[in-house]
Amino acid sequence: MNKNIVCIGAGYIGGPTMAVIAKMNPTRKVVVVDINAERIAAWNSADYSLPIYEPGLVDVVKETRGKNLFFSTDIEGAIKECDIIFVGVNTPTKTFGRGAGMASDLQYWEATAREIKKFATSDKLVIEKSTLPVRTAAAMEAILNDHAKYRLTVLSNPEFLAEGTAIKDLLEPDRVLIGGPTTPEGLAAVEEVVDIYASWVPREKILTTNVWSAELTKLAANAFLAQRVSSINAIAGLCEATGADVDEVARVIGADGRIGPKFLKAGPGFGGSCFKKDVLNLAYLCESFGLHTAAEYWMGVIKMNEHQQERIVTRLLKEMFNTIANKKVALFGFAFKADTGDTRETPAGTVARNLAEEHALISVTDPKALPNAKKDLADLANVAFEEDEYAAATDADAIVLMTDWRHYPALDWKKIFSLMRKPALVFDTRNCLDAAALREIGFKVMNIGK
Ligand code: UDX
Ligand code: ADP
Questions:
Q1: Annotated catalytic residue, options 7, 239, 274, 432
Q2: Is the CB of 275 under 6 A from ligand 1?
Q3: Residue 274 known to be catalytic
Q4: In the chain, at which end, N or C, are there fewer CB atoms within 10 A of the end residue's CB?
Q5: How many domains does the chain have?
């Protein structure tokens, strides 16, 4: 009954998801494997310095690791021993060949499929967790079952967790989605996956569909969310030009029950590993089925996002008399959002590069993302990395707040003012600081959409 689980890929999705599955299914053995030995060592580290930062994750790992949750590099052994395989390997946007810049690079997924086929010694369920183009499952099913000795049934169980709230999202999901073949064996396989989640998720929140619907839903859900961010950012530019206040506009728009208040915060644009990749994927899919207008529509969401990030530096330049060469600009926050150390596609990266092109002197501070920031900006000269916000602000001409870390509003802004060169400018791209209080101290303050 309680079948063993393996997850291939110990990243942002595989790690937290399997930790929660292990916590809520104490009688199942859950093994997370990865080709990256350093990553596995970090998951296994005695002092719990896990490879990713996620609030609440350490507690779940402390509770389960060594009991029914294991991290290992022994992919072959893990595949042999388990009945259910989740695949959470990375599927970045292709950088070469057909679909470069748009389609997903499936080489890691395919390599994994071939490993599963090679090492399997019994029938297994193979469950997609990574975001993948629609119909990938069918391709994988073909690879896996071509001259195979065992039946490998492919299902799709897309992950909807958001970084920074992953543990909460996993423990109290709005919904869990499981897609499977509509054959009797497929339906039985879906039920096996339903059982894993039903140990803590109310049955009515576990939705089942066919495989393709599940794959497409993931792309569509992320595209809808990204589209909301681009829509409010498009309104933000108009607010700046006309004297309206985007936060007021968003509050009133969101009061309409049909629209709702979430995901209406104007800011520096969306980052993270999912939104851009998934919207590009969706646009590519539309394009490849001849739906050019639909493809263009979704590409508009990306274009708007890029425009938003460019606008930040353009506005900063204008405010600083069209030159920031040799002026010091402190970036407060480098993660793509608060409560994560993840910097993939972070707007702060784009802004840092634009500032470097203008020959600014950059200092970067972030409570969790500095190790990633250092790697991301390794090729740039004139960038300093400071753990301490006050050190980052010392002698700065401007602070650009990029990430809405919760402690930023509570910093000693009087002290920061005293450390900066005058006129001290704060560009709060998250609209999270008290602008009136800052102005009272003497700062020049800029916001998004005001
Ligand atoms: C997203 C989806 O929310 C999640 O369901 C999916 O599984 C993966 O992609 P994530 O990228 O981790 O999760 O974070 P999310 O909270 O969605 O934020 C994405 C980006 O949009 C961030 O850069 C965030 O700052 C930005 N954002 C979000 C806004 O600018 N305004 C908002 O109102 C909301
Ligand atoms: P995500 O955000 O989708 O979880 P990550 O990049 O954080 O993506 O994690 C994906 C993980 O998958 C990485 O740790 C990577 O080493 C691992 N991986 C990629 N290919 C394979 C493979 N063939 N076998 C095992 N692990 C793999």
A1: 274
A2: yes
A3: yes
A4: N
A5: 2
